[in-house]
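Changelog entry: the DUF445 domain-containing protein record was regenerated in this release. Current contents:
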Amino acid sequence: MQASPPPDPDSELRRSLRRHKAVATGLLVGMGGLVLVSYKLPPGYWTDLLQASAKAGMVGGLADWFAVTALFRRPLGLPIPHTAIVPNQKERLGRALGRFVSSHVFTEAEVRRVLARLDLARILQKFLADPAAARPAAVAMAGALPRVVASLEDGRAKRLLVRLLPRIVSGPAGARLVARVLRAFVASGRHQEVFSLAIGQLKVLLTAREDALRAAIETRIRAEGGALLGWLAGASVAKRILHAINTELEKVEPEDSELRAAFAIWLGQEIERLETDPERAAAIGRVLREALAHPSVAAWLMDVWARLRAALVADAARPDGRTVTLLAGVFANAGTLLAEDPAAREKLNRAVEGVLITLLPSAQAQLSDFIAGVVGNWDAATVAEKIELRVGRDLQYVRMNGTLVGFLAGGALFALLTAIFGRVAF
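Regenerated structure tokens:
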């Protein structure tokens, strides 16, 4: 079965133009009919008046028909100069139309007026506050994340990241980041867990290497005090030293030990120095830069990134994943902020307006070129048809008015001349 053609969007305009053409043409034909009828009437003043009026009306109608027709095509197909103006001048018309729209319609004042009426911040706020709308947007954004992540897989992007990361963390910002992480670490009490882990590992190490340490201490005593002293007291001194170390470690283990408190105080002072002492910040930056620049660390970072990337891509593909939930939460928070903070809405509107006004000159030029290109690429018949469909009805009124005004003017002129000069024989 053959598909039906699509509906003509200009069908109503075509019907209206045909009706008005028929009326204007009928009026012109009527004037011609009056001229013929006037020749059949008995001679006299009123017959001459009717004949003069009808002739003038027919001439006026013909003149306006020629003028209107010459805009869009050659009258009667004759190659008369300066006719079919619109098809022959479509490139110039397109450029002029493009300049008019970009300079007089798409203006800065009009853009500001439209933006003020739209209130984009309020529209965005209503969108973000609606879970039924924000959730699909979060799903769509999460679905785009794998493509964004894939764009980072370019070898140049990796090399750039490896070069930039050490530079970023080696500046004052790196020290502040370390200080912020350490403050959060201390606030959560995790520093004591690390301290306990270090003490425990140290005790395990001492227990595992007790014999080696005892032998090392005895050797050192013999080297410093002689073989006799080493033989008499070496083992005893080594045993006492190891026992003292283990005793001190036992004292440190309780949570209220003085060494733990001293460690917390020292850590707080170091955090303060990281935030206020440029030399300490620079020292930390050098350490971070050297560590990140090491090939092993760089390889480890790339491995971490690969794992994170795989987890992110897998989670983003799930509508109920954490990524979608996080994005939906971000949208909801942004909607709440815009709803409760008029200043935030105003800032957003001003920011959008500023961006659009900045881009406006370029957009005007592109719009002008676009309109000129579209009109210039139309074929001559299409240009004439599109313009005639939209202004042709008003032009038919020009034809009607020309016919009627000619009729009235011809009659008035005949009456005036007859009153002044009397009847004139032709």
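Residues 189-276 form one domain.
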